[in-house]
């Protein structure tokens, strides 16, 4: 898996889509807060596994917390992290399979990238990308040539 680079100046405006999802689907987007770390971590473990749970727990150690959530009532629908595995890195991110295709992932992506821009970055790295087409279309991200060997190269894996 390769890394991607995204320009943070001129990110798409997602406020209209966010308003539609709030009105029609009752979905809110917000930054996570410390008291819910255990619940968010458990949900991510159940939905996406231990590696992402570890990264999310690091993101909860940031101030402000570097985790964005999408929720409907008391149900988590998706999340996006930044500055977890490395400085200026976006990810991990995920949306419940049953909620995909509504634009939730794109809004979470943009919210996290806006947070990186607010920190003073002009570009961000999306590490170890799976769906590169999604990132190309959503925010104009470009593959970083030669990034096949990434920060995840020597990751300890469960046998």
Quick summary:
With 159 residues, this protein is of the alpha+beta class. The protein has helices spanning 15-25, 37-48, 50-59, 104-118, 132-139, and strands at 4-7, 27-31, 67-72, 75-82, 89-95, 123-126, 142-143. The chain is built from five helices and seven strands.
How would you describe what is shown here?
A hairpin with a 6-residue loop joins strand 4 and strand 5. The mean pLDDT is 96. This protein has a single domain, classed as Aminopeptidase (3-Layer(aba) Sandwich), CATH 3.40.630.30. Strands 2-3-4-5-6-1-7 form a 7-stranded mixed sheet, with helices on both faces. Helix 2 runs antiparallel to helix 3. Helix content is 35%, strand content 23%. The protein starts with a strand and ends in a 16-residue tail after the last strand. The chain has 159 residues and is an alpha+beta fold. The chain contains 5 helices and 7 strands, in the order E-H-E-H-H-E-E-E-H-E-H-E.
């Amino acid at each position: 898996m390769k890394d991607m680079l995204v320009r943070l100046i001129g990110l798409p405006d997602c406020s209209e889509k966010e308003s539609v999802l709030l009105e029609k689907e009752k979905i809110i987007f917000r930054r996570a807060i410390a008291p819910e770390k255990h619940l968010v971590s458990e949900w991510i473990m159940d939905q996406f596994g231990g590696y992402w749970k570890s990264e999310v727990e690091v993101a909860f150690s940031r101030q402000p917390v570097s985790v964005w959530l999408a929720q409907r009532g008391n149900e988590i629908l998706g999340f996006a992290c930044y500055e977890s595995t490395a400085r200026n890195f976006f990810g991990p991110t995920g949306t419940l399979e049953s909620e995909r295709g509504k634009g939730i992932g794109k809004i979470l992506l943009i919210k996290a990238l806006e947070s990186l821009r607010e920190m003073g970055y002009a570009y961000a790295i999306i590490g170890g990308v799976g769906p590169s087409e999604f990132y190309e279309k959503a925010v104009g991200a470009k593959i970083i040539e030669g990034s096949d060997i990434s920060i995840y190269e020597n990751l300890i894996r469960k046998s």
